What does this fold into?
Amino acid sequence: MKKYSVFAIAREAMRGHKGWEEQWSSPEPKKEYDVIIVGAGGHGLATAYYLATVHGITNVAVLEKGWLGGGNTGRNTTIIRSNYLYDESAGIYDHALKLWDGLSQELNYNVMYSARGVMMLAHNVHDIQVLKRHVHANRLNGIDNEWLSPEQAKEFCPPLNISRDARYPVVGAALQRRGGTARHDAVAWGYARGASARGVHIIQNCEVTGVKRAANGAVVGVDTTRGFIGAKKVGVVAAGHSSVIMNMAGVRMPLESYPLQALVSEPVKPVVPCVVMSNTVHAYISQSDKGELVIGAGTDQYVSYSQTGGLHILQHTLDAICEMFPIFTRMKMLRSWGGIVDVTPDRSPILAKTPVPGLYVNCGWGTGGFKATPGSGHVFAHTIAKDDPHPINAPFTIERFRTGRLIDEAAAAAVAH
Amino acid sequence: MLLIRCPYCEEERPELEFRNAGEAHIARSANMAGESDDDFEKFFFIRSNPKGIIYERWRHMHGCARFFNAVRDTVTDKFVMTYKAGEPKPAKLPGASK
It folds into this structure.
């Protein structure tokens, strides 16, 4: 792997940019690997990267049915924050946030992590109570979060409408300054490049069609559209399709998959300096470095794998955005799309061993997995390498739905679901 | 937006009139307190989440307000059929090859 640097750019500029190498190789699949990761999204590639760098396990393949980063990694609204209510959630999301800081240097790849602040708006007394509870719980966990008056919120985000006769008046806000955004594609590409350089095979257009188990129940490999590939361990990181893959291994999951939509506007000059979220009216918005307003909508109400979603969901979100930011009422929306998110009953992820020996699962991130990418990959790699969870992901078991030890962010999450 | 046929109103109406109510044909135990943890987990949390044909409940909230069941393909979101609550799961689907 040739290191990217200002000198490399200068060198390549001198010779017509002919010396750049492919960022990752596309080898033919081997007959067998130590570890197979199903799904080359951010979480899967990060898992492979940390297996190689932290645990020295490089005989690894990442199988992807489509193209790298083409699922939810390329479909989310790139928001990063860690202001979750419960201790377990705070642990895993802040672990990720700490890794975001410095990730570009570690990967030698600019993931454009920008700690521009995530501001959550309160519109009524209940919002104030909920958000202040979050602020206090977060600070007890060592996570920055602070309370702002409407005037302070307006100062932090000038286009915000805080007039008292707004349809959704802003009566306060919670601000996590370390929160922000990153370039989603670059995260997948950076991890892919780092993993590939250490010997990990990234195999695209290779759909897993079955999970093979030995007589003793243990995993021995996966059937794919490119034939059987053996493996001692298989990690399923397939987002909306996780339950489909787990069913192939005979494990039924507490998951349901829903379409989640997002959209971007035409690019404009910098106008939204931070991320603004409103739980109550269900809208969130930020501005990409290209200038597009990036707007997240809600999920549809029914299980679907269609990657589309209903138009009325987008309209509802845009109504809210236009009320909060009247200056955007005449903006044109350029593109909208849907991704399929796998949602658990308690809205917390599952990163765990499974009842099947050698099979591990990292799923259930629901509507908010992007922010956790580095932390998720880091602790999931540990879980696979040691056959034992890292203390940070130890609470995120499958068994919690039997024992009742839920991590119930469903009612308490800082984001609307 | 989906168009959904309410089997009670016998009319196809826009999705906005309806609320999805999750997977259908999950029987609630008559003796909930006697359920084992395993069985309760299956009843309460585990879902089939199929990529393909799903049997699901809908409620015609802003119409007759009654619950009914539907068969839908989760890849195309197309409805195969709807039927009244309490009717058995259809053994054969209209137009299905298998």
